[in-house]
Design goal:
Bound molecules: S-adenosylmethionine
Structural class: alpha/beta
Number of helices: 21
Number of strands: 12
Shape: globular
CATH topology of the largest domain: Rossmann fold
CATH superfamily of the largest domain: Vaccinia Virus protein VP39
CATH class of the largest domain: Alpha Beta
Oligomer: single chain
Largest sheet: 8 strands, mixed
Radius of gyration: 23 Å
């Protein structure tokens, strides 16, 4: 595509709005496009690509550019990531700036810059990971995520959906771990496809799909998705229950639960009860104490495992926000644990990469007694899924091609 001065100006303006990191970049960009209604599809695509492209390499580009500002960052991205030639850019930037960027070194960078992670994140990862693994993780997190869908087992069959999509010319393949997953090579607008509109498929990362398997809810059981949000996991669990029994979908965010409603309608499930709660200590929660067979806690977390989708998130989190989240996670997990019958199953999951949001939260509950860890690797093997990351599941984009993801399965003692 041909770069023009107005287009460069638009990308610069949009980036400027994103770089205060007060709101999620995708929300800022949507608002920006609403204000620039006349922009054509190709120009929008360029602006979005430039903004997300800079965000993915923000630490590196900030080192490369002598006086980093949104415009020079976009120019540095065009040269370093898009491989644009100096000649194509000479009408937009001084020759010294172009030369400086072109000759900037790419080797010998400090680990946090090469991995595109904040220093404090690298410090928190270091006790559990080698520098080489942190670098591989950081590099994988810089790549855009593939588009994964989950076939709704209540309505459709994966092989049939796969064959249909292939027949329609989509480049798709079955996901390696989830029995319901299909991965697209491109990013088509799948939310307009008839299979999406009739609830046969939902967009969901493969890692998230595995949670329903780990929870293992059966027909007729009493189950709760404690942090249901817009119901990504709820719908997978409800399908496994074949729309029988009862599946409570709790959340404190009214808007997210509202977003669950149309998805629920499409899914054809009639066993889900969305329930807005004020907090994890709400009386509606306490009323269910000791009554449930399975509870999923897909806890609010730093989201650092999803940086492929939200590269700005790492700059909107801090050690303080993580500390606050860990207090919340521990409190929610305890409240959720009280709902289980003896022998009932509790799954704790996050899309964080940090041990303090993951293993530490689970180990603290285990140390109090009352629960036993059920090895996730053995459970997955029972489903013929060869995914062995040890007794707790830790998925990494560098190793598994999924978002960064953590899950632990616990059983309430005393059955
Ligand atoms: C990681 S998201 C869940 C995503 C969701 N499970 C899905 O698959 O779409 C965490 C959710 O926890 C909710 N949350 C935060 N505090 C909570 C609390 N005290 N009790 C229940 N849910 C809470 C948030 O509103 C958010 O929707």
């Amino acid at each position: 595509m041909e770069l023009t001065a107005p287009l460069l100006q638009l990308a610069t303006q949009a980036l400027d709005l994103v770089l205060d990191f007060k709101r999620p970049a995708d929300a800022v960009l949507s608002a920006f496009f609403r204000e620039h209604k006349k922009l054509g599809a190709r120009d929008r695509a360029f602006v979005a690509e430039a903004v997300f492209g800079v965000l993915r390499r923000y630490r590196y580009l900030s080192v490369v550019v002598p006086a980093a500002n949104p415009r020079t960052l976009v120019i540095a991205w065009l040269i370093k990531a898009r491989g644009m030639s100096g000649a194509a850019l000479e009408q937009f930037a001084k020759a010294e700036l172009i030369d400086h960027i072109r000759s900037a070194r790419t080797d010998d960078l400090p680990l946090p810059v090469a991995a595109e992670l904040p220093d404090w994140v690298v410090d928190k990862l270091r006790p559990a990971m080698s520098d080489a693994d942190i670098l591989a993780l950081g590099r994988a997190l810089q790549q855009p995520a593939p588009l994964d869908i989950r076939v709704n087992a209540h309505k459709a069959d994966r092989d049939a959906v796969l064959a249909r999509l292939q027949g329609e010319g989509y480049a798709v393949e079955a996901t390696p771990y989830s029995p319901w997953g299909i991965r697209f090579k491109e990013h088509p607008a799948i939310n307009r496809h008839p299979l999406f509109l009739d609830g046969s498929i939902e967009v969901q990362d493969e890692g998230s799909q595995l949670l329903a398997l780990l929870l293992g809810a059966r027909r007729g059981e009493m189950v709760c998705d404690f942090c249901a949000g817009a119901g990504g996991k709820t719908l997978g669990i409800g399908a496994m229950m074949a729309s029988t029994g009862r599946l409570y979908a709790f959340d404190v965010a009214e808007k997210r639960l509202a977003n669950l409603k149309p998805r629920l309608a499409r899914s054809g499930l009639s066993n889900v009860m969305p329930q807005l709660i004020a907090s994890e200590t709400d009386t509606r929660v306490k009323r269910l104490a000791g009554k449930l067979d399975r509870v999923l806690v897909d806890a609010p977390c730093s989201g650092l495992g999803t940086l492929r989708r939200n590269p700005d998130l790492k700059f909107r989190q801090s050690p303080e926000s993580v500390a606050e989240l860990t207090r919340k996670q521990a409190s929610i997990l305890r409240a959720a644990a009280r709902l289980l019958k003896p022998g009932g199953r509790l799954v704790y999951a996050t899309c964080s990469l940090l041990p303090e949001e993951n293993e530490a939260i689970v180990e603290a509950l285990l140390a109090e007694g009352g629960f036993t860890l059920l090895p996730a690797n053995e459970l997955l093997a029972q489903h013929k899924i060869s995914l062995d990351t040890g007794p707790m599941l830790r998925l990494s984009p560098a190793v598994h091609g999924t978002d960064g993801f953590f899950a632990a399965v616990l059983v309430k003692n005393g059955a």
